[in-house]
Amino acid sequence: SRRITVRDVAAAKARDEKWPMLTAYDAMTASVFDEAGIPVLLVGDSMGNCHLGYESTVPVTMDEITLLSAAVVRGTKRALVVGDLPFGSYQEGPVQALRNATRLVKEAGVGAVKLEGGERSAGQVELLVSSGIPVMAHVGLTPQSVNAYGGYPVQGRGEEAAQQLLRDAKAVQDAGAFAVVLEAVPSELAAEVTRSLAIPTVGIGAGPDCDAQVLVWTDMAGMTAGRVPKFVKQYLALRKLLGDAAKEFAEDVVGGAFPAEPHVFH
Ligand code: KIV
Ligand code: NA
């Protein structure tokens, strides 16, 4: 069976079907989500926080995104794999964006790329799409701007900010984006944006009325250390389960219970 394409994603909106997206950063985890039927996997620059040990997404490089995107593509058969363009890889302008997006498509084999920004990134979206690279845009809270925000504040509150968010979403749609992530915006505004657009909205902290929902997989699975944002639902306590397994292994080794007869060659 063939891979999901951006056309399938567009068709889902026409049929009013909701769909899930998860992040993935390695082949093994990606294969689990692929076999579970998750149609779209994002190799997010959230890998900075939850896979590479950085404090934010800001330090993530093209080399890192390319390496891990290639692994996710190798680990999957069905999913549309979307590679995130990291901070500094597209802000200089459309030509820089095209050079780096082309690298992700050619070296990693992703089916689409994602970048942050609405009106400010419309020129980049337009050149990529006209060059044959599908683009998922990302508006509302854009984490690569953490140093400008001074944190991760909810976006689009108040009439002026709401109008700007609508303009941003329309700008990337007009530029040819096949979908747009809405991050950390009031549910009512996300619903209005979703109604106003012909392309699917992918919500994260954006309420129930988006066309799709995305979570960072380590948040979804309860692998993340410490507090998680309000919008996260944890479906598993993976951090505890894995830690308990490691402790049991350690006890078995120290106490001599592992390896036992079934694990031994003679
Ligand atoms: O990097 C990421 O994981 C993302 C999603 C949260 C949308 O951009
Ligand atoms: Na991201």
TrEMBL record:
EC number: 2.1.2.11
Positions contributing to Mg(2+) binding: D45, D84, E116
Cofactor: Mg(2+)
Alphabetized InterPro entries for the sequence: Pantoate_hydroxy_MeTrfase, Pyrv/PenolPyrv_kinase-like_dom, Pyrv_kinase-like_dom_sf
Positions annotated as active site in the UniProt record: E183 (proton acceptor)
A GO MF label: methyltransferase activity
Pfam families: Pantoate_transf
Complex and partners: Homodecamer; pentamer of dimers.
Name used for this protein in its record: 3-methyl-2-oxobutanoate hydroxymethyltransferase
Organism: Streptomyces angustmyceticus
Gene name as annotated: panB
